[in-house]
Amino acid sequence: MKILVLNCGSSSIKYKLFDMESKAVVAQGGVEKIGLKGSFLKFPLPNGDKVVLEGEILEHQAGIEYILGVLTSSKYGVLGSLDEIDAVGHRVVHGGEEFNSSVFITDEVIKKMEECIELAPLHNPPNLAGIYAVRELMGNIPQVGVFDTAYHQTMPAKSYMYGLPYSLYEKYGIRRYGFHGTSHRYVSRKGCDLLGVPYEKQRIITAHIGNGGSLAAIYGGKSVDTSMGMTPVEGLLMGTRSGDVDAGIISFIMEKENIGTQAISTLVNKHSGLLGVSGVSSDMRELRAAMDEGNERAILAFDMFVHRIKKYVGAYAAVLGGVDILMFTGGIGENAIAVREQVCKDMEYMGIKLDVEKNAKIQGEEAVVSAPDSKVIVMVVPTDEEYMIASDTMEIVNK
């Protein structure tokens, strides 16, 4: 079975084509700058070279049509025809309370997904645009939606409710939903498989740390708490997002700066986090370079970043009644040696003891990086959200 996985953003489309029998990635790439000047499709060749095809790509359907054309082209194609694709799996950011698992996409499902747009106005419309486009271009090919929020639907009310009037939850669905669920689900299972331990019996903290980041507390194979909230702003300090902030500060800034809701949303989403504190960059590599040059604000941003992760690890250890496995994943979690080291530093009191020398050798690969006498296993587990989407798609289509 061949499955095409699509991740449609506001101005981009990432894709991977899987052969599920061999679990191989047959093709991958992405469209950038949709609707903007200089849009292009970029993808790697088997020899490692990268191809960039520039063109006017005004909307998502044109982008997906471009992708399908390349997949079947005589020069770069890997398919004889589109009929070789058996199904399409879509990443969908927000499923609200409607979806607690991946679903086969029908007219009724699309309608419910459209109702979730107000919960994720920046993310769900392009996700839906991808679904509409595939219907238009590929007819009745089976499609599956895999939701970032679904894995966290097992959280108890005490974890997902806010201390606001209950009527606001009833009227608008204001509650914690959490994100990165596909990654937390994949990594937590994969880590237990690598260790050969039963998934349902472990107390796990997964740290998905990238430009966006979140932690999840997992018990009995289910998410019981997570750091992102109703939107992806809450929780950790991130590349450009503020993370946790006193709600009173928002109205204070709006009044002092004389700005409205759109401007404050842009401020906490695009101009805060590592970028906002350091004034240097949202990229951890550039931040580290500035730190090496003695940039004090870059150092402060890094210290805040690590402190927030460490604080959530401690909080979730309390929620779980202890922790058996701490897993790092995401672009920073998998590659930033110093971040893992600083998060685990001085955590021996709760059973976390890092093997500093081994940790320093691990970047982007599966490994246990805790010391042999550590009571908590600390691991690096590279995430593969696209494969998880493809796997869910195959399972649902086969049913």
Automatic annotation (TrEMBL):
Cross-referenced InterPro entries: Ac/propionate_kinase (IPR004372), Aliphatic_acid_kin_short-chain (IPR000890), Aliphatic_acid_kinase_CS (IPR023865), ATPase_NBD (IPR043129)
Reaction(s) the record says it catalyses: acetate + ATP = acetyl phosphate + ADP
Cellular compartments per GO CC: cytoplasm
Cofactor(s) required for function per UniProt: Mg(2+); Mn(2+)
Enzyme class label: transferase
Cofactor binding annotation: Mg(2+). Can also accept Mn(2+).
GO molecular function list: acetate kinase activity; ATP binding; magnesium ion binding
Transition state stabilizer, annotated site positions: 180, 241
Keyword S-adenosyl-L-methionine set for record: no
Membrane-crossing segments per the record: none
Pathway membership, UniProt: Metabolic intermediate biosynthesis; acetyl-CoA biosynthesis; acetyl-CoA from acetate: step 1/2
Superkingdom classification of source: Bacteria
Record keywords: ATP-binding, Cytoplasm, Kinase, Magnesium, Metal-binding, Nucleotide-binding, Transferase
Database matches in Pfam families: Acetate_kinase
PANTHER family assigned to the protein according to its UniProt record, in alphabetical order: ACETATE KINASE, ACETATE KINASE-RELATED
Subunit structure: Homodimer.
UniProt cross-references to HAMAP family, sorted A to Z: Acetate_kinase (MF_00020)
Family note: Belongs to the acetokinase family.
Protein name per the record: Acetate kinase
Organism: Dysgonomonas mossii DSM 22836
Classification lineage: Bacteria, Pseudomonadati, Bacteroidota, Bacteroidia, Bacteroidales
